[in-house]
Amino acid sequence: MSRSSDIVARSGRRIAGYLGGSAVLLLGSWYALSPGDGPAPPPVPAPEPVVALGVQAADADPAGRSFDDFDPRPDHVAPSPPPIEPVPEDMLTAERRAWLADPGPRVEVDANAQATLESARAAATAELQKVLDDRRNSLLRACGGKDASNIFVQATFGADGKLLAREFADHGNDTAVRECLQSQPFAMSIPPPGVELRVRGVLAPR
């Protein structure tokens, strides 16, 4: 009886082992063939910075902006800014109060004198240019500057119209030509302008 019992026990253990192995294979095959949970959903894009801060996307789009007070009419004039309110007297500094009490002499622009000065300046410039045009050839021939580029002349006249100083300046010419022109005798006068004037002319080779 014991021998038969051992055989039966060993057979049972073998059958149990076979069944257990089959169950493991079946479970592995089922997991391998199961569809799972499907593809992962695409990531949700992060909100735009302006939207994250509470600003609507349409407001942040430059193409979508609008101005309620914009008037496309060419004759539209923007409203003038509000007038500047004066500072209350009790808020003025001591220096400001003293200046308001005595602002000092007021400088008045003499329009007539300004117009006279501009007229004298224009006349002196024209006179200088006329003299330069008349002496162009002789000056340049004396200094070997026939092929020189434009040479600028600045002349200063006194209130009596006499020439006080003149200076030649150029760009790209030989320094010797300019120095030679500066050494040439150059005397002229203009109608007395009443004030000292400084004007400019051009010595232009032909």
Give an overview in words:
The chain is mainly alpha-helical. It has a domain at 48-61 and 110-205. It is built from six helices and three strands; from the N terminus they run αααααββαβ. The protein has helices at residues 2-33, 49-52, 57-60, 94-101, 111-143, 175-183; strands spanning 151-157, 163-170, 197-203. A three-stranded antiparallel β-sheet has the order 2-1-3. Helix 5 crosses helix 6. It is elongated, with a radius of gyration of 51 Å. The N and C termini lie far apart (146 Å). 10% of the residues are buried. The model has no long low-confidence stretch (mean pLDDT 76).
Classify the secondary structure makeup into a structural class. Answer: mainly alpha
Low-pLDDT runs: none
What's the overall geometry? elongated
Query: For the largest beta sheet, what order do the strands appear in spatially?
Result: 2-1-3
Number of helices: 6
**Helicity level:** 40-55%
Q: What is the H-and-E element order? A: HHHHHEEHE
How much strand?
5-15%
Largest sheet, in brief, is: 3 strands, antiparallel
Q: What's the N-to-C terminus distance?
A: 146 Å
Question: Whole-number radius of gyration?
Answer: 51 Å
| Strands, count | 3
Overall mean confidence score, pLDDT: 76
